Amino acid sequence: MRIGNSPAPSEHRFERVSTKLNTGCRDHFTAAEAAPAWSGLRRRRGSGASRPRRGVCPAGLYTAEQRRRRDASPWTRVQGVLAPCQFAVFAVSLCLVVRCLATGDGVAIATASIVMKTALLYAIMITGSIWEREVFGRYLFAPAFFWEDVFSLVVLFLHTAYLVALATGVASVRTQLLVALAAYTAYAINATQFLLKFRTARRSRSEPASQAAVMSGAAP
Q1: CB 3.0 to 4.6 Å from 210: which of 19, 57, 95, 220, for a disulfide?
Q2: What is the pTM of this model?
């Protein structure tokens, strides 16, 4: 029965059915579209965290190919001989220079020791550049030894400044010895840089096995 002009109530609940239908369709398609994206994201994150980069050691000093070239290069052995020889001459020469500055004696032997130390520095710089070219493909400033090479040039400059002062006589003996001391200080810093870098590389050689054991769930 109708009252006035108001429509008769419908027996069908279109609004409720339509709401449920829209909500169900939206949830269905949203879940279907989002699932592959989220699952792919989880796979990408998982694979990136569990797989190390190939060919790069943890310290980033050598790739596998660079390590092979380093071990095969004869200049690696040359560097291994020249480096301790230069350090031994440096230690003796440093004592002679300090003694000469303190007492004024032994100028000739102190000068000879500085020249010998400088000659060894030139030898190790030249052969080291050849070694760097064979291993990293460039004579200087390879990314693995960039800052060490930068400071090596500072060391070379100071040693060369001593030779120039000695050859030209533009500075007194005391000034020459002070330049040599500055060169030796820079050399000590540079040698420490290389020692720390090689120490880090040596430690990294034993890390991959431990990391693989941890990733597989085994005890390191």
Answers
A1: 220
A2: 0.65
